[in-house]
Design goal:
454 residues, alpha+beta, Rossmann fold, Dna Ligase, domain 1, D-amino Acid Aminotransferase, Chain A, domain 1, 3 domains, eight-stranded antiparallel β-sheet, five-stranded parallel β-sheet, 33% helix, globular, binds adenosine-5'-diphosphate
Amino acid sequence: MRHAPPVFEKILIANRGEIALRVIRAAREMGIRTVAVHSTADSDAMHVRMADEAICIGPPPGSESYLNIAAIIAACEISGAQAIHPGYGFLSENAGFARALQDHGITFIGPTAEHIRVMGDKITAKETMKQLGVPCVPGSDGGVADYPAAEQAAEAIGYPVIVKATAGGGGRGMKLAATAAELETAFRTARTEAKAAFGNDEVYIEKYLGKPRHIEVQVFGDGKGHAVHLGERDCSLQRRHQKVLEEAPGPVITPEMRAEIGKTCAEAVASINYAGAGTIEFLYEDGAFYFIEMNTRLQVEHPVTEAVFGVDLVREQIRVAAGLPLSFAQDDLRMNGHAIEVRINAERLPDFAPCPGRITQYHVPGGLGVRMDSALYDGYSVPPHYDSLIGKLIVHGRDREEAVARLNRAMGELIIDGIETTTPLFRALLQEPDIRNGAYDIHWLEHWLETGMG
Ligand code: ADP
C-alpha cells in the first residue's frame, strides 16, 4: 500500500485520559509522531506511555498544568511539534489559546479563534445562527439589562421561561420561571450564579420547553466555504444537564428531518468558512428544532457518529487543520445501523460522589460492534484532580434493537474493580422499557433517579 506523506510530522496533544489516546491513535495511523503533556499526577498515565514523547507541564491542578498555556506552548516548541490537538474540555474552546498558538506559528487543530469566540458567547452565537437561517428558541433579543427588561421580554415570550447566562456552560446560571411570580427570583439567582461562575452576570431569556429531546447535529467544514453534516445524536439522557448516554441516529428523527436540519446546519457553517468539527445543539419538541448552542470542538460522544458513518473524525480534524480538503462529500456519507455510547464515570451510586482510586482488575468487553475508549489499565490509580469520566463503551448494531442487546451483552463483560463506577446505572437503565424503546426526553433520567431508579 502506498502511504500519503504525513500532513504534520509531529503533533502535541493538550489533554489527558481517553481523549488523548483517541488522538494519538488517529495520529499514529496517519504516520504522525505524538507528544503527550502531563501533570505530575499523571506521570503513570496511559497517554504518557502511549505517545512517542512526553513532557511534564506542571503540578496536579488543571489550572496549573492542562490549562497552563505558557507551559503547553513551551512544550510544543521544545519538542518541535507543529500542531496542537486540544481534545475536549480544558483549552478546546479557549479563543485566547487558539490565538496564542497562531502568534507562535503553531497550528491549532480546530476552528479559528474568532469562530470560537463568537460561538462561546451564547447571545452572539444565537444571533449568528438566526441570521444564517437556523431555527432558534423564541427569546429576548440579546441580553436583558435589568428586571423591568426581563419582565417585558418574558411577557412577550409567554411563560414558562428560562433565564440563562450569556457566558453559561455546564448547566450553570440557568433558572426556570414557571409563572410571572417566579421571574424576579429566577432573574436574580441566575445573575448571581453567572457572576460567581463566569465573572459575567449578563443573562437572557428563552421560552422554556417542557419535554424536549436534546438533538445535536455533527458538522464538518473545510474552512474554505465547504461543509457537510454527519447526521444527529440524541443526548437526551442527562443528569444535571450532563450527558450520560448518547445514540445515533436519534430514535425519533426521520430521514427527511435529518436531511433538512443537516442541510441547514451544513450551509450555515459553510457560509462562515468554518473549519473542522463542530456540533450544533438543539432542543427538539413536537417536530420542531430549536438551536441552543454550538460547540466548536470534538464532542465526548463523537464515536457514535463515527460508528454509523464509518469515518474517523479526528483524522479529518487533523487533515483540515493541515489545509487539506475534506476527504468526503455529503453524497459519500451513508449512515449505517445504530450506535449507543455510555459514559462510565468513577463515581459512587446513588449520589454520584467522585470515587478515584486504584484499579485492581480491568477487563474490556470485545466482539463484533464493540468499542471501548478508555485510558485505564490494571494497577492504574485514577487521580482525584480531574473529570470523573474514565471510559466510554460504544456499541454498533444493524438497528437499534441489536445495538441495545449488544450493549447489554458488553456491559456484562466489563470489569472495573477497585473503585466504584457508574456501570450499575447502565445495567439498570437497560432493563427499562422506555430506554429499550428510545422513549425518553431530557427530564426522564432525573425523574427516574428521584423515584428510586425505577
Ligand atoms: P450549557 O452550556 O450550560 O450546557 P445549554 O444551553 O446547552 O447550556 O443547555 C443545557 C441543557 O439545559 C439543555 O440540554 C436542556 O436540558 C436545558 N435547557 C436549555 N435551554 C432550555 C430551554 N429553553 N427549555 C428547556 N430546557 C432548556
